[in-house]
Amino acid sequence: MPHRTRPMTALLVFTGLNVILVSTITPVYDFVCFLPYWERRRERRCQERQADALTKGSR
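^ Transmembrane protein, sequence as received from the core. Prediction below:
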């Protein structure tokens, strides 16, 4: 006898997991994207670009 499938249960579990994942993505995204490392790197690259622009402008 084949195994009985339960499509409604599977749909509810799938929807529940997606709701949990969507609700937790914002804090994870904020944590990863706004780490102090990235902020320092962004500032350093901005300063390097400004220094390059000054040296190219003085030539």
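Helices lie at 7-33, 36-57.
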